[in-house]
User: Fold this.
Amino acid sequence: MTNPRRNIRISGTGVAVPEHVLTSDEIDRRFGLPAGTVFKRYGVRARHRTVEENAAQLAARACEEALARANLSWSDIDCLVAASATMDQALPYNAAMVLATIGPRANRIAAFDIGASCLSFLVALDTLSYLVEGGRYHNVMIVSADIATFALDWSTLGESAIFGDGAAAAVIRKSSEAEASAILTSKIEIHAEGVDHCHIKAGGSRYHPRRLSESIDPLSLFHMNGPRLFRTVSRELPRFVSDLFSAAALTIGQIRLVVPHQASRLALDHLSKRLRIDPARTIDILANFGNQVSASLPSALHHAIAGGRLDRGGTVLLIGTGAGVTIGGMVMVY
Assistant:
């Protein structure tokens, strides 16, 4: 089943990262490894790690840059959507926390969360595009902000070597008849047999401290079965991408740029190989930022735009995977 073209324009984007930078050399020393081991094994040279900042503060900073690049003010925004994989706190929801951080400049606007793990931004963009084109909202701010630091098991090498903290935001509006900007097609699907491949069990009612006889600490850490996750994605990705391009009536050769979720070095290399894409046409910021969870894909999109690699009228593929297992993609004209 296909979905229709939507006349949507990304007006501005922004990013924010914590001030503290954790290098792979530091991780090498922590684990007593030869210098360069972590970078060679995982492809991440550095990642930003929060010390004082919370996710809402990072989100607010990313939103301010997106507003400036869109040449708008908060009075122009009528909806804010927080699209993150993690919560700043259990209640209230992330969007409320972001607005509280911004203050009265963004007062009395609609706000809510959309969550789909690492694909939260893509799902939010897909969902809100219909509401914007239909006239329900005019200028929507979508912001993803995740702090992975506190959920990682820093006593073991692996996930702790690839994840970083950060935020990214984008303002969207309806494009005019004179503008080429549009979402050509999108597709999101879940393979729930892999629901346990990536998880943090604590944080909800199922593993609430009042229900447990043991410590909640181990349940508060991120766990990933990388090989099983990779096998699921590898099996499904070619068919998924084929369906996506068929709906867009395009071929991969007509795509100017591919902006993937920065999952891992293995995932990025596998994507280029399976889609037969020249790496030069793929946005790859993994080495300097790591996997920033939900902020990863929109951060890569921002760097593509800010770095001059994606111009107006260029056709771009946004694609990624996340816990669930979720696979998502979108073909759009920037």
Q: What stands out?
A: The CA atoms of residues 24 and 179 lie 44 Å apart. The two ends are 24 Å apart (CA to CA). The mean pLDDT is 91.
